[in-house]
Amino acid sequence: MLVVDDEKDIATVLEKGLEKQGFKVDWYTDSIKALMDYRPGSYDLLLLDFKMPGLDGYELYERIRKIDRKVKVCFLSAAESSYLKEYKRRMPPLDKKHFVKKPIAIKDLVNHINSILEMSDVAV
What we know:
There is one protein chain. By secondary structure, the protein is of the alpha/beta class. The chain has one domain: 3-Layer(aba) Sandwich (Rossmann fold). It has helices spanning 8-20, 31-37, 57-67, 81-90, 106-118; strands at residues 2-4, 26-28, 45-49, 72-77, 99-101. It has a five-stranded parallel beta sheet, with helices on both faces. Helix 4 links the parallel strand 4 and strand 5 (99-101). It is globular and about 30 Å long. The two termini are 19 Å apart.
């Protein structure tokens, strides 16, 4: 799993919590660096913060999907609902499970992640 969140504290908490649940996690706080280092086929899931400097989570997702059509996504956001509505309007249709409001307990996040991983490929 690839975690990208511009807040280092959040990225490391997610890494530790998810690794305790059996996931292998790579993480970045810089979305542009994450894109530059991205290796197609290396990840089953992207766990992306929505609001980041440089490339926001959706822009990062769009660019990664151009080189890796199989990777799935879950967006994290502490942003206000108007910000999320704007992005959801621009985005391809994704199930509501693809969006998680921060803060979230690791147990609940794992449930979201597992439900996404069990879904058929999302055509976007």
